[in-house]
Amino acid sequence: xxxxxxxxxxxxxxxxxxxxxxxxxxxxxxxxxxxxxxxxxxxxxxxxxxxxxxxxxxxxxxxxxxxxxxxxxxxxxxxxxxxxxxxxxxxxxxxxxxxxxxxxxxxxxxxxxxxxxxxxxxxxxxxxxxxxxxxxxxxxxxxxxxxxxxxxxxxxxxxxxxxxxxxxxxxxxxxxxxxxxxxxxxxxxxxxxxxxxxxxxxxxxxxxxxxxxxxxxxxxxxxxxxxxxxxxxx
Amino acid sequence: xxxxxxxxxxxxxxxxxxxxxxxxxxxxxxxxxxxxxxxxxxxxxxxxxxxxxxxxxxxxxxxxxxxxxxxxxxxxxxxxxxxxxxxxxxxxxxxxxxxxxxxxxxxxxxxxxxxxxxxxxxxxxxxxxxxxxxxxxxxxxxxxxxxxxxxxxxxxxxxxxxxxxxxxxxxxxxxxxxxxxxxxxxxxxxxxxxxxxxxxxxxxxxxxxxxxxxxxxxxxxxxxxxxxxxxxxxxxxxxxxxxxxxxxxxxxxxxxxxxxxxxxxxxxxxxxxxxxxxxxxxxxxxxxxxxxxxxxxxxxxxxxxxxxxxxxxxxxxxxxxxxxxxxxxxxxxxxxxxxxxxxxxxxxxxxxxxxxxxxxxxxxxxxxxxxxxxxxxxxxxxxxxxxxxxxxxxxxxxxxxxxxxxxxxxxxxxxxxxxxxxxxxxxxxxxxxxxxxxxxxxxxxxxxxxxxxxxxxxxxxxxxxxxxxxxxxxxxxxxxxxxxxxxxxxxxxxxxxxxxxxxxxxxxxxxxxxxxxxxxxxxxxxxxxxxxxxxxxxxxxxxxxxxxxxxxxxxxxxxxxxxxxxxxxxxxxxxxxxxxxxxxxxxxxxxxxxxxxxxxxxxxxxxxxxxxxxxxxxxxxxxxxxxxxxxxxxxxxxxxxxxxxxxxxxxxxxxxxxxxxxxxxxxxxxxxxxxxxxxxxxxxxxxxxxxxxxxxxxxxxxxxxxxxxxxxxxxxxxxxxxxxxxxxxxxxxxxxxxxxxxxxxxxxxxxxxxxxxxxxxxxxxxxxxxxxxxxxxx
Lengths: 234, 778
What we know:
Mean pLDDT of chain A: 96
Structural class of chain B: alpha+beta
Oligomer: heterodimer
Largest sheet of chain A: 9 strands, mixed
Radius of gyration of chain B: 26 Å
CATH architecture of one domain in chain B: Alpha-Beta Complex
Shape of chain B: globular
Radius of gyration of chain A: 16 Å
CATH topology of one domain in chain B: Phosphoribosyl-aminoimidazole Synthetase, Chain A, domain 2
Strand content of chain A: 25-35%
Number of helices of chain B: 27
CATH class of chain A: Alpha Beta
Distance between the termini of chain B: 50 Å
């Protein structure tokens, strides 16, 4: 598969994503500069984590106006797969590709640690290798990861199977104690109504090798690959 | 423009320049300096830039080995060969005074400064550490400083995108009002990518890149070289720089890209302490050239800045680059790509002089080499501090032995210095860059270096390191102000030994070290004695562990109105782990494993039985006294070598060094320090029998800090081999127990000859240890 990883000034998980996609999973992955206007030959786009534009104004608020995001929007509108991780999730929300917003962690401080996630709807390109309820252990690293949306949006998302990952305890219970940032409904990651654009705060690319204390992140990335392979075949 | 003030003896004194130093300036210039020149001399001859009080002492450090590619003092950071054409650059530096005045920005810019020192060498920074010290955490003011410093480090490191992978934090009354913030950074590069901070090539253009110069951080280096007083803190708030990690990230990427442009860069140096002044005269001095710059071309963000202000500003994230003539367009192309300001501000000359012009008018004209290299050198008077007599006379037997050992362990695990630092490291992104193999919480952190950790190559250049390469680097930073206060020489040896022991426990052999000397006013002979003796001990120990010093930093004048801080050398050690399989952590692994103590349980030759200066003595009896445990370097080396050999033989499942809090704390930590996710600690129990160990005091046995001890665990099959190897190496080794059941019912049971069996619930101890800092801070 051909993955395109966006690179904004201040992106800092871009190389990690390329590393995992290329060296660990064996796919093509290249960096696309924010001033570029076209995605070229791309099967999926990753909007990586970091502090694009220094988080000035508001996380993700400036990145949405970059050249490359116009191309990503077109790509998504045509059904292309787009995954936003951490700051990438924030950018996709700012760009209107995903509903809701990410605000400052309830505990104010930045938090970096492994958390447990319970997979929701398994019928999406991002979860198809994880039966409903699958627990994933993946690290977070963010200061503004508290997911917020109005009640109506949340209800629609629930009904429509758009809540893909929720923070939970080691037994899969979505408790307040297992929620590291105060996200509504313990939401860690969601997708759009069409299910081709997803975003999550945890970093699957940091948990894709055994030597890095965990490899559950691969399940997510490999789901995307499996979906793309099936789509190509059909 | 305002007129420069006249040079008067008062003005000279205000600049921290002594009458003798002023005479020397007159001799160097052959005339009176003007105001700008006086400012330039004052920052360049501050302790921070010139090491004028410590140069003779620092000569004692071992600084060479076959692996050292760039040694101490040559450049902005030392560089060590790690094989396969790969090298690492690392260094530690203090930002104590700025952090005392403005903890968030002070600490943040400390991180920014040390990162710049590393990429200036052509290396890509891949991880950071820090060593922090504060006063008593029960004070709200100390809590404010602690919160601010940790927040500042997190802000800068997280946004820049560097994992802050290890560190240490200590609390002691002596740091009240004068916290210590020592920041470390390590980068990686190929041998041929080493960049130099020299203004080579007469006629080459000199470029300024990075954000515009403002009035922030005016003369920070000079500020760092004075005693801290309440009045100074208020006055000097303007001397604290303001950092922008986003800008630094862009400047680094652009600089590494420019360095990869073939033949473009002749020399590069960051503008750190003393900003434009230091970078211009040091690069010229290194190359034996001169340099001429025009200040009107320097990007400025404040209006009406005087030459004095521009030259002394410490605005952050700026770099000076000497470009080979004909490659100017490369600078423009790359810095425009990153939307960064750049300006050609001068030229390399053959005059040997640093000439500064403002709108064509000469405002400073100084021989570059003289100001950079001929700073004054002082051999200060030293006198053994009066308190040392009392320390030597102190005997722990003036206190009765403990009758409440169970409570003592609970109390020790909650003391802020020993308690888990998760409140700190969970605020640092310690996993970005996909290299964090052993994260904070074990004896040493381990980081993986892989091909894409490296700086980019020139277009079309062949890769010079093997494909798919992986290397594993272990890092640890240590300090112990109490030991060094009580015995500057012996205490300093112990600091190095403990740090090296941490590396050995992780499976690494030392490659080199960097030190940060945090001491008081060198004009006070008793304080200078501490410094002198400490350096002697550090040098001896670094040599013993084959850990040459590749650079570091000196921070003197660390005192507040109540007096000097405990003398605190901090040492960061970097080591190489030969194979992935050798990476070892401190937590017990499997039920039934045998627990072995390497080294003597208690040093019976020590009149204080390892309790002098111990955490136990301070926490329980409020006593900071007695000679601290001595470290016999030969014995220590034997224990570390044995630990490493056993790890490499595949016999060891866990290894943890015994240090603050002694054997009981070490065992407890081995039972509960592994944490797999939020609210998911992993517990093991341990059944320990110390009834065969002779000790006249129970507290010394459980909480004494006798040196050269490591607790290892091994499968029952390998225990005999470990014991036999120990015997062959003449290292005492004792089977002290077994790893027992896991989960919620796990207990730590210790049987001794004198007390009935002690038993603690591991989840209960863990909860005390894990939550202690959060309970104070949140």
